[in-house]
Structure formats: C-alpha cells, structure tokens
Amino acid sequence: MAEQRGDARGTGSVRDGAPQAGEPRRRDVRPEEARAWEDLVATARRTVAEGLVVGTSGNVSVRVGDTVLVTPSGVPYDRLEPDDVTGVDLDGRQVLGALVPTSELPMHLAVYGTTDARAVVHTHAVHATAVSTLVPELPLIHYMAAALGGPVRVAPYATYGTDELAENMLRALADRSGCLLQNHGTITYGTSLDQAYDRTAQLEWMCRLWLTAASVPGLSPSLLSGEQLAEVAQRLSGVRPAPLTPSPRTPARPRLPPLTPPPPPTGRPCGPPGHWRDAHCQSGGR
C-alpha cells in the first residue's frame, strides 16, 4: 500500500485480524498462481530487507494470465503465508483470497492495462523519494537510465490510491519502464518480478548517485547528453552500432611496411660481454 500502516492484528496469524475483503473466495488457487505467489512474497520481503520500504509500505504484484496477484493491505510481508493468496481480475474484481488488496491497486492495474508488464514493484525508497521532491526529472547522471527507457520522469503528486495518481503515473511512464512519484516513491515494471525489482534497485542507486554528486559544494556533476544515452540504449538493445569509416576529408593513413630486424653483429668482442669488434673498436674507441 502507499502509506505505512501498523499491524492491527496483534500476534495472531494473518487471518486473525487482517482487513477482509467482505467477499468470499470465488475459486481455488491454480498451481501456477501458487508458485507465482511464492515469488511475489519473496520479492516483497526483499524490498524490506534491502531498505526500499519500511513496515507495510510499498506493494508488489505479478500477472498470471488474466489474474493479478497483489500484496494485501496492512499485512507485514513476513507473515504472509501460502493460503493468503490475494488476486483480482484485470478490472479489479477480487477473485482470490479474503484479504483486502493493496490500496494502490489502481496504479498496478493501470500499468497492466497499458503495457506488456508481467510484474510491478512500488516502493518508498529514500533516495528516490528525496529526488522526487527536488526535480521534475532525474538528471542523466548515469548511462543505466537507458535501461529504464530514458530520462526518468517524476509524476506530479496526487493522493495515494486515487485514479488521479494512476493517471499521473501513466504519463510519466510513457516509453519508460519506471518513474518517480512526487513526494511518494518509485514504481517500475518488467517481464518478471526479478526484472521489475532490479529496475527499482537501479533507479534508487542512480538517485543516490545524483544526490551524492550534487551535494559537493561549488561543483556540479557532469551529465550525459541525449545522444550519449541513445548510444547506450542501442547497445542494450543488442543492436551493434555501425562501424566507423574514415572521414572523406581525412583520407585513411597508408599502411607502413613492416619493420625488419637489424642484421646480427659480426666480429670478435673488444670489451665486456656484448661488445663486438668493429671499426669503432679498431680505432681504439670504447
């Protein structure tokens, strides 16, 4: 979810006091959904372990067919169990589980509805959130911005869980696989949970890098140009750049003949080892 909430259930199991959807489970969990849920929970726990979220803030989802599995609202990730699978269809109707889906469900569904995403990760990473309060776009401090599609934009602030926030996010995500949410956090997507998570980690690292470089008094960090980033994007896509050819104004330098070794010395030594008798020696030179 977007805001941090405490666990209202005490020390019981997830189902003892967690928010309930008020709608019974509509069908059983399929094997592929059970496996995806395990991966989702592992990814959600990783966001906490690596400091990208605090408590129950942030959320993770993964698409399996036409079902979106998503972290539930207000449940610490270390308490999620296999039976806690929470899923909705692409219209947001709950089809799996009894726990209430994250309050940020509109953002997740907006991503799935407009991209080829199979997984979405939303965090409140500290450095990324700090950058979101300072600039409308993360400056091109590192070439790995190309891995997110280009300069990372900042979506204007809107209240968490609203359609307005989802719309702002989509505009910032145009031709991108990640963006910053002003005064809020990050959101990235990918073809897998691992890829979505890695993009989040990369975005947080770039934000930390820029904040560090920009904090040096009296100096401004050097930034990459759009052309430089485009070249990196081309390399990341697997397309090899065209080979360089000599400029018509600068003809190619002609090949030089190969060097030949000097002839071996002849004569007898005239001094220490390595010195040979020659005209110089014969004349008394040393």
Walk me through what this model shows.
The protein is α+β, with helices and mostly antiparallel strands and 286 residues long. The chain has a single domain, classed as L-fuculose-1-phosphate Aldolase (3-Layer(aba) Sandwich), CATH 3.40.225.10. 30% of the residues lie in helices and 12% in strands. It contains 8 helices and 8 strands, in the order ααββββαβαβαββααα. The protein has an 8-stranded mixed β-sheet with strand order 4-3-2-1-5-8-7-6, sandwiched between helices. The chain is globular. The N terminus and C terminus are likely disordered. Keywords: Lyase, Metal-binding. It comes from Streptomyces viridochromogenes (strain DSM 40736 / JCM 4977 / BCRC 1201 / Tue 494). One of its GO terms (molecular function) is metal ion binding. One of its GO terms (biological process) is pentose catabolic process. This is L-fuculose phosphate aldolase.
Please outline the helices and strands.
Elements: H1 14-17, H2 31-49, E1 59-64, E2 67-70, E3 87-89, E4 94-96, H3 105-114, E5 119-123, H4 126-132, E6 154-155, H5 163-172, E7 178-181, E8 185-190, H6 193-214, H7 226-236, H8 279-282
Parallel strand pairs: 6-7
Antiparallel strand pairs: 1-2, 1-5, 2-3, 3-4, 5-8, 7-8
Summarize the structure.
The chain has helices spanning 14-17, 31-49, 105-114, 126-132, 163-172, 193-214, 226-236, 279-282, and strands spanning 59-64, 67-70, 87-89, 94-96, 119-123, 154-155, 178-181, 185-190. It has 286 residues and is an alpha+beta fold. It has an eight-stranded mixed beta sheet with strand order 4-3-2-1-5-8-7-6, with helices on both faces.
